[in-house]
Write a sequence for this structure.
């Protein structure tokens, strides 16, 4: 009979070296040095399985989908629709009709603003977001508010970069038509208490859109357990191709929403007098979609599941704690974003050094980080800084990567002190 201790001992070790072998990019040097890639919040590298799936489409089954009756079109349609099923299972949606393929998180949010928003939001109504949103979850709502004479409300954050829940709850009012918040902040790494955010909104019958762009590659997602009404994410931030992403919406809501764009595939029949729209999710997918991207996204889901999101989350948690301790020990370094619940992101400033100089010096060491406002200018304004340097983790990062980062930052300090 197995004991608990036996179980622990047989659990496969998280083997970063083995995982890195799945990513061809790590075979190439950068400036003659091994690549240390710490810009995963911007985009992730692609495993061979994703590259193979995209190549297979173009070399073995390249055709337009849905309309063709020939062999290649049927194969391509099957691969594309199989990806949709994989995505449904990946985020635990109730039905495949709730999975709309879009270009990415940005397009998903714009789609909701321009369809749900335009029909449900009127003069004097309110949309509630948070102070840590990416521009993609600010500007579409500003456009809508401008058009409708509605008001954008912003729930504040505290100095750690955590949402102030009491203020959020107070801002939910009779005129709030939608809450749109990020699951994980790309600029701070804050993991928001989304269950509580949704519970408080739903108590008042207010639907919730979650921006999952920084969540999907780092933690398991179950949209039914969450109960969120919309959930958006981008394939390229979860080891999939660029130009493909997902809008999940509850069927009841998607059904009631008007189409986003008009064109081929989103129709059932067209006459000059009247067009009948296709069923979900195709009603929202006008024109030839990113077929290769959709197929690649399915492969990315398969890859993430083969590593296991629980294992990824545990590994990245360990790295984040290790990285936090190592960075905090550096002379003049201040972490921006010290929430109690964080994922993947180490944003920081170094006294007397512009973040762009940090990025440039690290780059010459083969270390890729991001510097700037991270498309979250209001966050920078809150901390009264122009920019941060940001190292963000992925499933292939190791303690050696963190050590390389720390070594690079010591060099920065030597140059500037
Ligand atoms: C939190 C968050 N939301 C939305 C986006 C936009 O994603 P995309 O540019 O892939 O549409 C990003 C990208 O960095 C993000 O970090």
């Amino acid at each position: 009979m197995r004991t608990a201790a036996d179980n622990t001992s047989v659990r496969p070790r998280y083997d970063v070296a083995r995982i890195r072998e799945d990513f061809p990019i790590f075979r190439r040097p950068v400036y003659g040095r091994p690549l240390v890639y710490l810009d995963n919040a911007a985009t992730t590298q692609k495993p061979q399985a994703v590259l193979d799936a995209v190549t297979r489409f173009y070399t073995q089954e390249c055709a337009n989908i849905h309309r063709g009756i020939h062999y290649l079109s049927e194969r391509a349609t099957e691969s594309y629709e199989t990806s949709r099923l994989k995505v449904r299972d990946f985020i635990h949606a109730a039905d495949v009709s709730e999975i709309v393929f879009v270009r990415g998180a940005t397009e998903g949010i714009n789609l909701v603003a321009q369809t749900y928003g335009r029909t449900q939001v009127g003069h004097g109504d309110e949309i509630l977001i948070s102070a840590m949103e990416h521009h993609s979850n600010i500007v579409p709502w500003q456009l809508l508010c401008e058009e409708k004479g509605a008001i954008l409300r912003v729930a504040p954050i505290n100095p750690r970069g955590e949402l102030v829940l009491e203020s959020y709850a107070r801002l939910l009012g009779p005129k709030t038509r939608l809450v749109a918040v990020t699951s994980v902040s790309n600029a701070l790494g804050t993991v928001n208490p989304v269950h509580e955010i949704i519970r408080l909104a739903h108590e008042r019958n207010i639907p919730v859109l979650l921006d999952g762009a920084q969540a999907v590659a780092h933690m398991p997602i179950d949209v039914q357990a969450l109960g969120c009404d919309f959930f958006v994410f981008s394939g390229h931030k979860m080891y999939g191709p660029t130009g493909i992403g997902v809008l999940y919406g509850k069927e009841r809501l998607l059904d009631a929403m008007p189409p986003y764009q008009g064109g081929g595939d989103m129709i059932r029949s067209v006459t000059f007098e009247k067009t009948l729209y296709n069923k979900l999710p195709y009603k929202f997918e006008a024109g030839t979609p990113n077929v290769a991207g959709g197929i690649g996204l399915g492969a990315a889901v398969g890859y993430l599941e083969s590593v296991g999101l629980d294992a990824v989350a545990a590994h990245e948690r360990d790295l984040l704690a290790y990285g936090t301790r190592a960075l905090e020990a550096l002379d003049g370094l201040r972490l921006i974003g010290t929430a109690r619940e964080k994922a993947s992101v180490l944003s920081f400033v170094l006294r007397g050094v512009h973040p762009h100089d940090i990025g440039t010096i690290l780059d010459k060491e083969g270390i890729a980080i991001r510097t700037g406002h991270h498309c979250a200018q209001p966050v920078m304004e809150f901390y009264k800084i122009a920019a941060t340097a940001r190292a963000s983790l992925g499933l292939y990062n190791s303690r050696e990567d963190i050590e390389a980062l720390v070594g690079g930052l010591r060099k920065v300090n030597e140059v500037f002190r």
Q: What stands out?
A: The CA atoms of residues 202 and 208 lie 8 Å apart. The radius of gyration is 22 Å. The first strand starts at residue 29 and ends at 30.
